[in-house]
Amino acid sequence: MQDPNDDRGESRLYIGNLDLRITKASLLKLISPYGKIISEDFLWHMRSPKPGEPHGFAFIQLIAYISAMGQTSHSAKIDTIKNKLKPLEDESSRTKK
Asked: What keywords are annotated for this sequence in UniProt (predicted)?
């Protein structure tokens, strides 16, 4: 079970309603830009009705890159606020002189 206080951004995704022609490699290629893939379960029919064909869904566990992007955007917001405050600080220091 995943610790709710764990901030690594690890997720297990259910991907359903997949076209039966999609391959495991193409699905992983599609998902990989969004995070580091830890594990995948691409499920296949083992018995009837269609042995060897995909079920049409998969589970993929990954560490999302979103958490790293969130930190960057937070830093950018702080820099923007500092830049807006700087002219106010300069103005108040000129007024005191």
From this structure: RNA-binding
Report the DSSP pairing between strands 35-44 and 10-15: unpaired
Q: Which long-range contacts (CB under 8 A, 24 or more apart) does 3-11 make?
A: 7/67, 8/63, 8/67, 9/35, 9/63, 9/64, 9/65, 9/66, 9/67, 10/38, 10/61, 10/62, 10/63, 10/64, 11/35, 11/61, 11/62, 11/63, 11/64
**Amino acid type, 3:** D
pLDDT tens for each residue of 67-95: 544 555 667 766 776 676 666 556 656 66
Closest-CA residue to 10 (of 40, 42, 35)? 35
